[in-house]
From TrEMBL, chain A:
<comment type="similarity">
    <text>Belongs to the ABC transporter superfamily.</text>
</comment>
<dbReference type="InterPro" id="IPR017871">
    <property type="entry name" value="ABC_transporter-like_CS"/>
</dbReference>
<keyword id="KW-0029">Amino-acid transport</keyword>
<keyword id="KW-1003">Cell membrane</keyword>
<keyword id="KW-0813">Transport</keyword>
<keyword id="KW-0067">ATP-binding</keyword>
<dbReference type="InterPro" id="IPR030679">
    <property type="entry name" value="ABC_ATPase_HisP-typ"/>
</dbReference>
<feature type="domain" description="ABC transporter">
    <location>
        <begin position="18"/>
        <end position="256"/>
    </location>
</feature>
<dbReference type="InterPro" id="IPR027417">
    <property type="entry name" value="P-loop_NTPase"/>
</dbReference>
TrEMBL record, chain C:
<keyword id="KW-0472">Membrane</keyword>
<feature type="transmembrane region" description="Helical">
    <location>
        <begin position="142"/>
        <end position="168"/>
    </location>
</feature>
<keyword id="KW-0029">Amino-acid transport</keyword>
<keyword id="KW-1003">Cell membrane</keyword>
<feature type="transmembrane region" description="Helical">
    <location>
        <begin position="81"/>
        <end position="102"/>
    </location>
</feature>
<dbReference type="InterPro" id="IPR035906">
    <property type="entry name" value="MetI-like_sf"/>
</dbReference>
<dbReference type="InterPro" id="IPR043429">
    <property type="entry name" value="ArtM/GltK/GlnP/TcyL/YhdX-like"/>
</dbReference>
<keyword id="KW-0812">Transmembrane</keyword>
<feature type="domain" description="ABC transmembrane type-1">
    <location>
        <begin position="19"/>
        <end position="207"/>
    </location>
</feature>
Amino acid sequence: MNADQKPARASAAAEPIVSLKNIDIRYGNFHAIKNVSLDVYRGEVVAMVGPSGAGKSTLLRAINMLETPVSGTLKVGNFSFTLDHELSQKELLLLRRSTGMVFQQFNLFPHMTVEKNISLPQMRVLGRSKEEADKVTARLLERVQLADKAKSYPARLSGGQQQRIAIARALALDPQVMLFDEPTSALDPELGLEVLAVMRELANDGMTMIVVTHEIAFAAEVADRVIVMADGEIIEQGTPEEVIRNPRLPRTQKFFRAILDRH
Amino acid sequence: MTEILTPLMNIGQYFIALLKGVPISLAVTVSAFLVGAILGIPLVLMRRSQYWLPRTLARVYIDVIRGIPPVVWLFIIFFGVGSSIIAFTPTQAAILGMGMISAGYLAEIYRGGFLAIPPGQTLASVALGLTRIDSLRFVLAPQVLRVSLPAMATYFISLLKDTTVASTIGVRDVMMLVTQQAQAAGGGFGPFIAAAVIYILLSIPVAAFARVMDAKLRQRVSR
Amino acid sequence: MIELLSNWIDWLPQLWRGLKVSLQLTGLAMLFGLPLGLLLALMTSSKAPWLRWPAIVLVEIGRGAPALVVLQMVYYGLPSAGINVSAFVSGSTALALTAAAYTSEILRAGINAVPKGEVEAGTALGMTKADILRFVVIPQGVMYAVPALMGFAILLFQTTALTFTIAIPELLARAYRIGAATYLYLDVLVLAGLLYLAVTIPFGWLVQYTERRLGSHLK
């Protein structure tokens, strides 16, 4: 797949839609994220790769404050926070409405139907009426091609189907940015493909996406920018061509070579 | 200030008076527990037998002994059997009754212990050529015991509380003393608060023991 | 043998009335004890120390004090506090308090069994903590807890036999009365035992069945 075949997505907008500055995260004595800064622009698809324990998920989860940095500033959409103090419930809720997250373990609610999984958050978080919520749910189920599973329970669905529902659930709240935490790591390669297909479409439709993944091929194909993390820092970033095909640092070279060898 | 001090002092007095019942409460509990721990062994072996007769007999025993309230069993032994066949002292009846009930519960605890042992252990013993009895005695039983200890300790605590029923057939334990005190005092919460405190205090060392054993077990078993 | 059976038939109506009282006590105690137990379970799981510690103390006392002590405490204690109620109400209250303490631990275990990932998903969606509790955690927590709660109900039913000490005319009390009048203690007590079994054993089967059904639903 050539670079010029990728549709132009990332706009040259001045203001980044997500901006992390000087983010520092510690667990006791362990310094998980070391003074990291990152800007993501509207419509960009950013892939975060790197060895396990590098801090990729931790950094991603700092964006919707599932991890608590001890210092730094966070800006998502119109909301800006300095993280030297604890954020109020209200601030956290506003932040999380602007972001949608998809987890490795899907985390669907097993005691609710697929429909209810998608509609309930709309009604409780955005205050939509049941009619509005149901309409959005139906539209999204169509989009992920699972309209016939609306009344099923998650336990009856395959992993790939569950993850697509999880994506629909997050999309239903109209987030400005979608965060993916290793979305296909818990799936068989076959099932992973259906999920990656949905993610590719989402990207082509212009959604801003930050994806922590081990799927280097997907990153190469879909991402506008690839970020390599190791030991709590960003060690390299650039276009897929730059980073994946011509990594600068020996560390990164070693990482990609190991992955290519395994395939 | 005196409104708080006087009741507290009263509770203190009740507490000291109730301590006289502690040795009996403990004696009955420990004896019943020992009876149950020992009787539970043949019971669990029967329960796990490959033959349906001992297995069914054991199941029936366990279900029936646990399905009837302890106080009813004590009454059956003390008043029922006691008035027609053999006479028991209240303490004997209490130990016998609670002991038989404990056997039922402990047999189930032992059974859980057996189920928790990796099947490989039995396979290894068979492969080594150990007889069933030797395998039971040297390989399985020690492990079953170790795994069951926390549950046994927890059961001991509940047994301590359950043996308060012995007071209903005349055993002079803490419970009987407390009822006498309450009737003498014409009511009030004091004696019972003191009694509750005594039982809670008695359970603390056992609970601590259970937690320590549980932690030690996790160390040994976790891979 | 014939005489035994004929006596049993004579005594059955009386004992049946007593059994009804035992069942009523159990029902009332669970009815009032469970909501209180859920409240205590939530309080003991809370992060706020001023909610957590009082609840922990109440639960430990409720579980640490023998049921007989609680029963007699309520029975002898309430009048001295100026509250005069029937023995039945005293008994139900005492059993409800005990039920609350024990069920709170069962419910807490159920609530903790809900995968944390779902709570994270709810958080990421922007749901309030209250909503996550209400729609995600409590419904599943209670479902996980149902078999253990049913098992506890059986134990509670057996505990009602202790209420004869506070003059409630339940099954054991009536059996003893017949025994005292006829001196046929063994005969009548065995019948009473059989009546207890007639409730506990089938209910025990129901618990096992429920465990199996719920297990498959939530997997």
